[in-house]
Amino acid sequence: MRKQASIDSTLVTFSLSSMAASIVKSAVHKLCWQWQALVLIALHLCYCHNFGAIAQEVPCCFIFGDSLVDNGNNNHILSLARADYPPYGIDFPAGPSGRFSNGKTTADVITELLGFDDYIPPYSAATASAAAGIRDDTGRHLGERISFSGQVRNHQETVSRIAELMGSEEAAAKHLSKCIYSFGLGSNDYLNNYFVPLVYTTALEFTPEEYADDLIRTYTGHLQVSTLVLITIQSCI
User: Fold this and answer.
1) Does residue 158 form part of some domain?
2) For the segment 108-160, what is each residue's pLDDT rounded down to a tens digit?
3) Do the domain assignments include residue 41?
4) Please, are residues 135 and 215 in contact by the beta-carbon 8 Å criterion?
5) For residues 6 and 12, what is the distance between their CA atoms, to the nearest angstrom?
6) Using CA atoms, how far apart are residues 151 and 154, in angstroms rounded to an integer?
7) Residue 22: inside a domain
8) Residue 32 falls within a domain, yes or no?
9) Number of domains present in the structure of the chain
10) What pTM was estimated for this model as a whole?
11) Largest Cα–Cα distance of the chain, in whole Å?
């Protein structure tokens, strides 16, 4: 049985290596389009900023995602996916902050260009978490993390507090409908799940196409939940 399990594991690893190239090629192509869109947005905001048109155009911004936009949510949890130590943050004003960057994240740059006086704080408005994925089990070998479903639950609590502060759900919904919502997850569902067959069984359970479809269904479900929490998402980067 052990020998058969070893053979199965070897076959899965070989199969994954052969399919990885095509999946990565497709992912890189999609990421290129996403980065082009972000560059265009940034250029537009820079143009407006230089001509004095930006004076915080939106009241708030909520960030959902993984290490690309985590600004410190993993600092106080038991996780290997942390960046609150040098050389991270060597170019950030306050030093290491939990950002997986030498300085600002893309979310920091966008919100800065939108006219925000300060960076979006972790825990409430920014719920992104390094090693997080669309699937709840993604990244578990790295320790604690806040999955997409966990981030949505945290946002629900934030919305409830906003409704209490504003006096009614209607007032909160009107306020939140003017906010920007940024979602960016999915890479860990491959890098820290599907491509790690010694830890996860997803490569045995799904073909690449089936896995992508399952991620899309789960992702869509979480988005639908977030839109039902008193909000109408006006913008999604």
Assistant:
1) yes
2) 998 888 888 888 888 778 899 999 999 999 999 999 999 999 999 999 899 88
3) no
4) yes
5) 10
6) 5
7) no
8) no
9) 1
10) 0.75
11) 70
